[in-house]
Design brief:
binds magnesium ion; two-stranded antiparallel ribbon; 26 helices; disordered N terminus; cca-adding enzyme, domain 2; 2 domains; 438 residues
């Protein structure tokens, strides 16, 4: 019987649906013209070409996408032949980058879901089940099933402008739910960074986690200890520099993930060695979110300076460091802390150096008189160090009056400032009066 052979309840047929152009809100006007150009060229050359991932998800939610990722059945070499301005990159994933000035459109070839039991599948796993390499090409359905969340597996097909949904992503998108595709524990084991992505998308989209997607996170956080520190650094920047740092921080703590990213900071937070640590972080993250909302610059160096300030203070209180001259103690404690943190989330030197400088300059604020104090205001890192001082004051460290003084001095004109720095009093108000009257 033909009917017996048609498995109408098979999950793949049940889940797959095509949403025609007339029934969704994605308009080509909202897609980057360069991405459209790439899609059209692939399509005209006989290849399948779709947008996928955050671009499609964000357009459907009425948000402005960060970038547009293209997927195709053309092999990377075939993509390169079609575009002059194309470079192939990556080892774990071989991708085509098509360059248009400073916009890059990333084109990936459909990849297959790995099969952990099939040694021939071309997927390499480490002893924890983590994927090391998976350059296995597949169909669009395969490609959908290896993505992380169902809402990230929606395809906008340039052939007919429809949205293709292979994993019930549309229903989850409408319900505001993040649901991992496949068996959640296995998916986290393959790639523990997915736990951080869950947190980030919750904060960014205001979505909740499906219960079965949330449950394993509370048990599997330790797998982050095996993730490459450089990758964790990239992911951290997305978590803390995406405009929802406060919420991401709270969620990381709630899910027990923060301790695997910043173990020393987490110890400070739990044991209250350094009672203002939590206030400092919350203030710093709130500031960061506000600066991003206002389009002002932020730097990872400042972020790390706040994240590691608590552990730095506890280290400096250890007898071994107390025995050293203050400056040596600070430098050696910095070395130790950076070495330790680098094993968890990488801290590239270009950020580690300014972070140390922000810390080292904190002592210089105590000296308010004389030429050195005046010269300090022209130090290239003065602004960042001053912002950090203000943050410490807001967090309840006993530097409020100092911060107020340096805030006041910056409002004076050059002549008044020179006079202020000659006045020998700690009171900002008195200094200002004296500077104005002399
Ligand atoms: P955004 O760019 O807004 O941060 P995004 O969903 O586009 O969000 P990307 O990191 O740009 O995130 O990844 C693009 C797509 O690649 C995702 O939507 C998802 O389909 C897939 N993807 C990314 N990282 C993973 C992962 N670790 N595991 C499985 N699929 C992933
Ligand atoms: Mg993206």
């Amino acid at each position: 019987m033909i009917l017996d052979q048609l498995d109408i309840d098979s999950p793949d047929t049940a889940l797959f649906q095509t949403i025609p152009r007339s029934e969704h809100t994605i308009s080509r006007r909202l897609i980057s013209p360069r991405a459209l150009k790439v899609l059209y060229r692939l399509h005209e050359s006989g290849f399948r070409a779709c947008l996928v991932g955050g671009g499609v998800r964000d357009l459907l939610l009425g948000l402005e996408p960060k970038d547009f990722d293209v997927v195709t059945d053309a092999r990377p070499e075939e993509v390169r032949r079609l575009f002059r301005n194309c470079r192939l990159i990556g080892r774990r994933f071989r991708l085509a980058h098509i360059h248009f000035g400073n916009e890059i459109i990333e084109v990936a070839t459909f990849r297959a879901q790995h099969d952990p039991d099939d040694e021939e599948s071309g997927v390499e796993l480490d002893e924890h089940g983590r994927i090391i390499s998976d350059n296995v090409f597949g169909s669009i359905e395969d490609d959908a099933l290896r993505r992380d969340f169902t809402v990230n597996a929606l395809y906008y097909d340039i052939a007919d402008f429809s949205v293709r949904d292979y994993a019930s992503g549309m229903a989850d998108l409408h319900a505001g739910v993040l649901r991992l595709i496949g068996e959640p524990e296995q998916r986290y084991r393959e790639d523990p960074v997915r736990m951080l992505r869950a947190v980030r998308f919750m904060a960014k989209l205001g979505f909740r986690l499906a219960p079965e997607t949330e449950a394993p996170i509370h048990e599997l956080g330790h797998l982050l200890l095996q993730a490459p520190p450089a990758r964790l650094f990239d992911e951290l920047l997305k978590l803390f520099m995406g405009g929802q740092a406060v919420q991401c921080f709270e969620l990381l703590r709630l899910f027990g993930l923060f301790r695997y990213l910043f173990p020393a900071t987490d110890r400070c937070l739990r044991h209250e060695y350094y009672s203002t640590a939590r206030h400092l972080l919350i203030h710093a993250f709130a500031n960061t979110d506000q600066r991003i909302a206002e389009g002002r610059p932020i730097t990872p160096a400042f972020l790390y300076a706040t994240l590691l300030w608590g552990p730095l203070q506890s280290l400096l209180q250890q007898p071994a460091f107390q025995a050293l001259p203050a400056n040596d103690a600070l430098q050696q404690a910095c070395d130790e802390l950076i070495r330790y943190q680098n094993r968890h989330t990488a801290l590239p030197r270009r950020y580690a150096l300014p972070m140390r400088e922000i810390w080292a300059l904190q002592n210089r604020f105590e000296r308010r008189t004389g030429k050195r104090a005046l010269a300090f205001m022209h130090h290239p890192r003065f602004r960042a160090a001053y912002d950090f001082l203000v943050l410490r004051a807001a967090a309840g460290e006993p530097v409020a009056e100092l911060a107020e003084w340096w805030t006041m001095v910056q409002t004076l004109d050059d002549a008044a400032r020179q006079r202020a720095l000659l006045v020998n009093t700690d009171s900002p108000r008195q200094t200002k009066q004296l500077a104005a009257s002399s």
